[in-house]
Amino acid sequence: MSSESLEHEASETPKAGEFPPELRMDPAWVPATRLAQLARSIVFTLVILAAWGAFRRIVAWPEIVMAGTTVLVAAAILLRVLSAIFWPGLSRKYCRYEVLSDRIVVHRGVLMRSITTLPRSRIQHIELAQGPLARRYDIADLHLNTAGTVNARVTLIGLPVVVARALRDRLVEDTSDGGV
């Protein structure tokens, strides 16, 4: 199944129990995450530059050492900004969720790939979360909590809000029926 058809399926409101076998993050997750990471990058840059300015005034190292550390500081800032721009798209590409009758499987990771399987019978509490940017882009995160200590909370990030609500309602319905 192509990613375009998955995105189309995920953007429609599913009926109870009629989820596509595979869900992906909403495409709107990418710009929302870029904005959030760029805002963090600005704060990071300001802190680094303030610390660097104070460091240059306090320490009297040879000019060649100062030039080398200036290059390192600039590289760190550039790497932070580039990762804020490119990483969200890569993360979305390698993240998908499978909602099966007996379990939920989460595939994620760009460099270090992981597959987390959560039996639906272990779900005890479900939380739908939206920050300000998520509300602006109409996306949500669905937190699935279990009683365990390892992977006690599995989060399905960047779902279209209508899909997240429908999935939450379906899982709660299954809980009340004794299925989850």
What does this structure look like?
This protein is α+β, with helices and mostly antiparallel strands and 180 residues long. 51% of the residues lie in helices and 22% in strands. Strands 1-2-3-4 form a 4-stranded antiparallel β-sheet. Strands 5-6-7 form a 3-stranded antiparallel β-sheet. Helix 2 (29-58) packs antiparallel against helix 3. It has 5 helices and 7 strands. Residues 1-11 have low confidence and may be disordered.
Which structural traits does this protein have?
5 helices, four-stranded antiparallel β-sheet, 180 residues, alpha+beta, elongated, disordered N terminus, three-stranded antiparallel β-sheet
